[in-house]
Amino acid sequence: MESEEFKLYPEEEPLKMRRLSPDHPDFLENVEEQKSREARHLFGLDDLNIISQFEETMSHYPEGELTEQYGHFIDETLKHSMQELVILSTDKENQFASVGFETFFYESLDNSELAEQLKKIFSDEFIDAENGEIFITAQEILPRFMEIPLPLYRKMLERHVECYSESEKELQEKLPEWELAFADRLNEQVNKWNLALTKEEIFKRLEKVEVMAGDYLTYSDFTEADGDYHPASCTAVVPTGEIYMIKESGQSRDDYREYVYTHEMLHAVSGLTVMGGENSEGELAETQIRRHGLHAEGRFKWLNEAFTEFLALKLLGKEDSNSYKDERRELQLMIDKGVPEELFAAAYFENLEPGKTPRLKDLIKAVNQKCGIRYLQNLDKEFS
Ligand SMILES: [Zn+2]
Question: Given this model, what pLDDT does residue 66 score?
Answer without folding.
Answer: 85
